[in-house]
Specification:
The protein is built from 8 helices and 11 strands. It is of the alpha/beta class. The chain has 2 domains: about 120 residues, Rossmann fold; about 100 residues, Winged helix-like DNA-binding domain superfamily/Winged helix DNA-binding domain (Arc Repressor Mutant, subunit A, Orthogonal Bundle), CATH 1.10.10. The strands form 3 sheets. Strands 2-1-3-4-5 form a 5-stranded parallel β-sheet, sandwiched between helices. The protein has a 4-stranded antiparallel β-sheet with strand order 6-7-8-9, covered by helices on one side. Strand 1, helix 1 and strand 2 form a beta-alpha-beta unit. Helix 2 packs parallel to helix 3. The chain is elongated and about 70 Å long. It binds calcium ion. Calcium ion binds next to loops.
């Protein structure tokens, strides 16, 4: 099963704190997470985990249940008691597969759990999903606005779940709008952002592509998501009454 790298920019690399006392497993996790673009910090027991949380400020914690000095359950409980770590995303790792343990992990405040032995791609998928849910890391894979969703990896765009067919320029225009929803851009700004500064294109070309984009995304009976601001430019905006 292939894993798709999500290309986090180097600044936005999420930090995963791995708390694991089995050295070979820790090494394996570190290797795979780094390969997938995560920054990795580690701790080998419960006490160290609490120290590392304070120092490394991880975005997500992969917390083994059975640990020396302080169990994963106890670590989780302590973190949940403190205001500054109450919302730290925690995935509990358990060697035990009884449902009761999972329930207990969630009861004491873990956000998710995964049972050993696990497949590496499952761990990575869970970490990504939790990062997205917690809003710690914006998904680099999908841009959304109103009913529009753009899957940047697959180059697929949908409105209300229905696929939209966009030419390459319309795609890039929409991508740019999705990155700055609600903002009004002059034609020249759109030219710079979408076509590039070095290419000479008539500003009116923008109008042509905006028209195509509009046609592609505004299907019957739907709100026109592209707002034309007279003498100013265009914006992606679901509120037709907003003033430019
Ligand atoms: Ca262990």
């Amino acid at each position: 099963m292939g894993m798709m790298a999500e290309n986090y920019s180097s600044l936005a690399k999420p930090t995963v704190l791995i708390v694991e006392d089995e050295a070979p497993l820790l090494t394996l996790l570190r290797y795979n997470l780094e390969k997938q673009g995560f920054r990795v910090d580690e701790a080998a027991d419960g006490q160290e985990a609490l120290l590392r949380v304070a120092e490394a400020r991880p975005d997500v914690m992969l917390l083994d249940w059975m640990l020396p000095s302080l169990s994963g359950i106890e670590v989780c409980r302590q973190l949940r008691r403190r205001a500054e770590t109450r919302d730290l995303p925690i995935i509990m790792v358990t060697a035990r597969t009884e449902d009761q343990d999972a329930v207990r992990a969630l009861d004491i405040g873990a956000d998710d759990y995964i049972a050993k032995p696990f497949a590496m791609e499952h761990v990575i998928a869970r970490i990504r999903a939790l990062l997205r849910r917690s809003g710690r890391v914006a998904s680099k894979g999908t841009l959304t606005y109103a009913e529009i969703a753009m899957d940047q990896d697959a180059h697929r765009v949908t409105r209300d779940g229905r696929p939209l067919h966009l030419g390459p320029t319309e795609y890039r225009l929409l991508e740019f709008f999705l990155q700055h929803p609600g903002r009004v851009f002059a034609r020249e700004q759109l030219l710079d952002a979408v076509w590039g500064r070095d290419i000479h294109v008539e500003p009116r070309t923008v109008d042509v592509h905006i028209r195509r984009l509009r046609k592609a995304i505004n299907q019957d009976h739907e709100v026109d998501l592209i707002r034309t601001v007279r003498s100013a430019g265009y914006a992606l905006d679901s509120d037709p009454n907003r003033l430019g």
